[in-house]
């Protein structure tokens, strides 16, 4: 059996420490010993420790166990993630009950049975690692929780999409959402998850455009300790975190061709294998993917696997750009106005007539995300009760062809990035904010288009 777990042994008897070290170093990855608990604070704050084997009496002539209980509580205060097994030659039922009540995971009596002691300490180490992993997964799930709800609007295109969602949300069918940047693909994915029978489970989002190729397997499938240089502990991947819920793979069109078979294998088998392990782990999660790229054209060109496209594309939903649903622009703008007027405590009631005209007529190359940022900025700048064109600060469409003049989305996207880069003098943070994408995604697109 592989040696795992870091132990700290605290006992004032050097002969006992020597015997324990000889025994336990055969079973655990690291064994540290202390002859006095006075150094516990320093060691626990600076060392990776899973479990402590703690003697209960350190003062000659004292055998009531109070010292052990004190240091047990101290360990719990400093490192609540570390598990404690108490160790004493003066055992009684009341002492065992007190120690377990104060947080010890076990109570071992001297002289000890080797097998019993090793088993107890192994259980303590496994419990510590398991609870740390659960805590990490909860933190991941918490950061992925959002309270925004889907805005459907009144346009015929969105009404049709709403009808599709009402039919497919309750199923486990894999869904591919396509559409330009800023059209609300992730919000739609969250709406589908909210309406599904998996809504009680997590929805885990992964921006495939921001995952480095070298970390792809670790990010999605997890890894075991020692799998590579920085793998200091076991780590669950996004598939495992999403177990019982929904896994949302955003910008799946950015997944390199040589990594696509690994994703396909996981989807076909319903199991993943952590990096550095040979043990398959069953996962049960629904897949929703999204992209602003033409996967069908990429499949024809050989840059996206046809079998993977079929696997992720049981249902295809194409979100229209904002310029194709102009009847929803003012409704959306007023929704954002109410939100940000409340956030910034502004007595703003509406947009004036001229501002409404500009809102509806604007090209909205960045779609809903651009509209949201525009309204927030206008609310911040507005000093009255109505927003005017002077506070909207809508820039005229940059010189060059209109969006309708492009024959492909890629041509239009390339032009949008060029125009934004020129407008902001190459400030990539400002460009990413305007386009509503992350800096990593922007870097990928700049590289892709050779800008």
From TrEMBL:
UniProt-listed Pfam families: AAA_lid_14, HTH_8, Response_reg, Sigma54_activat
Single GO biological process annotation from the record: regulation of DNA-templated transcription
InterPro entries (UniProt xref): AAA+_ATPase, AAA_lid_NorR, CheY-like_superfamily, Homeodomain-like_sf, HTH_Fis, P-loop_NTPase, Sig_transdc_resp-reg_receiver, Sigma_54_int
Gene3D superfamilies named among the record's database cross-references: 1.10.8.60, 3.40.50.2300, Homeodomain-like, P-loop containing nucleotide triphosphate hydrolases
Span of domain Sigma-54 factor interaction: 151-380
Record-annotated Response regulatory domain positions: 6-125
Protein's name in the database: Sigma-54-dependent Fis family transcriptional regulator
């Amino acid at each position: 059996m592989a040696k795992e777990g870091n132990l700290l042994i605290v006992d004032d008897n050097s002969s006992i420490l020597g015997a324990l070290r000889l025994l336990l170093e055969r079973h655990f990855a690291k064994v540290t010993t202390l002859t006095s608990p006075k150094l516990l604070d320093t060691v626990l704050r600076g060392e990776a420790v899973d479990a402590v084997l703690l003697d209960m009496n350190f003062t000659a002539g004292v055998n009531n166990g109070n010292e052990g209980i004190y240091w047990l509580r101290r360990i719990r205060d400093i490192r609540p993630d570390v598990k404690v097994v108490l160790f004493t030659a003066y055992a009684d039922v009341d002492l065992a009950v007190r120690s377990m009540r104060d947080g010890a995971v076990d109570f071992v009596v001297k002289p000890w049975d080797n097998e019993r002691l090793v088993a107890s300490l192994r259980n303590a180490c496994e419990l510590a690692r398991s609870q740390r992993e659960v805590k990490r997964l909860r933190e991941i799930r918490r950061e992925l929780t959002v309270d925004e709800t889907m805005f459907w609007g009144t346009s015929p295109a969105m009404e049709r999409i709403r009808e599709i969602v009402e039919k497919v949300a309750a199923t486990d069918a894999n869904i591919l959402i396509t559409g330009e940047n800023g059209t609300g693909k992730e919000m739609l994915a969250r709406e589908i998850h909210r309406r599904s029978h998996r809504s009680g489970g997590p929805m885990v989002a992964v921006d495939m455009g921001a995952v480095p190729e070298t970390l792809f397997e670790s990010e999605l499938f997890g890894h075991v300790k020692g799998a590579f240089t920085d793998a200091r502990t076991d780590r669950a991947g996004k598939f495992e975190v999403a177990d019982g819920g929904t896994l949302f793979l955003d910008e799946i069109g950015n997944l390199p061709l040589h990594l696509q078979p690994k994703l396909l294998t996981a989807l076909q088998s319903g199991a993943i294998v952590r990096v550095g392990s040979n043990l398959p782990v069953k996962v049960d999660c629904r897949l929703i993917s999204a992209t602003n790229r033409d996967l069908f054209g990429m499949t024809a060109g050989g840059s996206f696997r046809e079998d993977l496209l079929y696997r992720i594309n049981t249902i295809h939903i194409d979100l229209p750009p904002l310029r194709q649903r102009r009847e929803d622009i003012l409704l959306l703008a007023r929704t954002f106005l109410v939100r940000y007027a409340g956030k910034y405590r502004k007595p703003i009631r509406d947009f004036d007539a001229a501002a409404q005209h500009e809102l509806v007529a604007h090209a909205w190359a960045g779609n809903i995300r651009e509209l949201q940022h525009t309204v927030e900025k206008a609310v911040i700048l507005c000093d009255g009760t109505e927003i005017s064109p002077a506070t909207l600060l809508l820039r005229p469409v940059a010189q060059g062809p209109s969006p309708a003049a492009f024959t492909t989305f890629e041509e239009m996207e390339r032009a949008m990035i060029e125009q934004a880069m020129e407008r902001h003098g190459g400030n990539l943070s400002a460009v990413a904010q305007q386009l509503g994408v992350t800096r990593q995604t922007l870097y990928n697109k700049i590289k892709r288009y050779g800008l």
